[in-house]
Design goal:
Layout (H helix, E strand, L loop, with lengths): L2 H6 L2 H6 L10 E8 L5 E4 L2 E8 H13 L4 E7 L16 H12 L4 E6 L21 H17 L4 E4 L6 H11 L6 E2 L4 E2 L6 H6 L20 H13 L4 E4 L5 H10 L4 E5 L1 H12 L5 H15 L3 E4 L2 H10 L1
Parallel strand pairs: 1-3, 1-4, 1-11, 4-5, 5-6, 6-7, 8-9, 9-10, 10-11
Antiparallel strand pairs: 2-3
Bound molecules: ligand PBG.
Length: 322
């Protein structure tokens, strides 16, 4: 018998030698908040994922806390959109209201807030446009700083900028520090590819660009060195946590960044990855639960410390059962 076979023969020994494990503490569950009351709209491309009004978000949080899931990430879908995403810049923005309600009832929740403008602008781009219909980096930085302060003052523990503007981490850190919000963390979407895997999310968040695409500010999926450089830039600007998004098709980049930085690293297991798996299960093509766990373990093996996933509630059940 070879040494490797000997090591695998007994289940307990296999467990003893297992190198990576899933633990609920490292998962973050995304939630989508809408205005109104008693609203819970399932997203057709993402079975099991809903746009919910704050009352239902609170019910969701109660379920999550009862089941040991204490990390969430909030996305807002506002009632009114305009050219600069003005509704994100008010203390009564949908996400600010949701954070205050969640923190009031579930202070143990660690709340991350996505920081971007694509859900709030009528053109669906991530910031303010200039006369050539390009996103104006520096003008957008100003309002990113403002939105970050509002979200943090409302009680968000982690600000997660996803707008991909140059210099956004520096700007946000400065804005938070100047408002006595020094203890708030920044989890930067530091390596974010221009990806087809965000398709279903844009249905949920109603944030498909009305013209053009995001290729000028998101990264080219073909580039490995640039992907590493982008994350290292955010580390230098003061990010507390780095991120690779999407996850599944970019595990090489996860490993590269893990080896280039000592910061904690998150992966975002995005909407398209979720939709593919759910639909394959619906068509009876796969052993869903085994495949789900295998994918999650692949993130850990690649070097992820944090997994942002729509599957978090299912993972909780699978961990309990195993
Ligand atoms: C931007 C944002 C997006 C996602 C997270 N934050 C959309 C985009 O960049 O187009 C995508 C997440 C997913 O696909 O699940 N606010």
């Amino acid at each position: 018998m070879t040494r490797l076979r000997r090591l695998r023969k007994n289940k307990q020994i296999r467990n003893l030698l297992q190198e990576n494990r899933l633990c609920l503490d490292e998962f973050i569950y995304p939630l989508f908040v809408v205005e109104g009351n008693n609203i819970k709209n399932e997203i057709s491309s993402m079975p099991g994922i809903y746009q919910q009004s704050i009352d239902n978000i609170l019910k969701e949080c109660e379920y999550l806390c009862k089941n040991g899931i204490f990390q969430i990430m909030l996305f807002g879908i506002p009632e009114i959109k305009d050219s600069i995403g003005g509704s994100a810049l008010s203390e009564d923005s949908i996400v600010a209201k949701a954070i205050r309600a969640i923190k009031k009832h579930f202070s143990e929740m660690i709340v991350s807030a996505d920081l971007c403008f694509c859900e709030y602008t009528d053109h669906g781009h991530c910031g303010i446009l200039n006369e050539n219909n390009d996103v104006d980096n520096d003008k957008t930085l100003e309002i990113l700083g403002k939105q970050a302060v509002i979200l943090a003052q409302s009680g968000a523990d982690i600000i997660a900028p996803s707008a991909m503007m140059d210099g956004q981490v520096t700007t946000i850190r400065q804005a938070l520090d100047e408002s006595s919000l020094k203890d708030k963390l920044i989890m930067s979407y530091s390596t974010k590819f221009s990806s087809a895997f965000y398709g279903p999310f844009r249905d949920v968040a109603d944030s498909t660009p009305s013209f053009g695409d995001r290729k000028t500010y998101q990264q080219n999926p073909a580039n490995r060195n640039e992907a590493i450089r982008e994350s290292l830039l955010d580390e230098n600007e003061g990010a507390d946590i780095l991120m690779v998004k999407p996850a599944l098709s970019y595990l090489d980049i996860v490993r590269d960044i893990k080896e280039s930085s000592l910061l904690p690293l998150a992966v975002y297991n995005v909407s398209g990855e979720y939709a593919m798996l759910k639909n394959a299960a619906k068509a009876n093509l796969i052993d869903y639960e085994r495949m789900l766990l295998e994918i999650m373990l692949s993130f850990k093996r690649a070097g992820a410390d944090i997994i942002i996933s729509y599957h978090t509630k299912e993972i909780q059940k699978l961990i309990i059962e195993s």
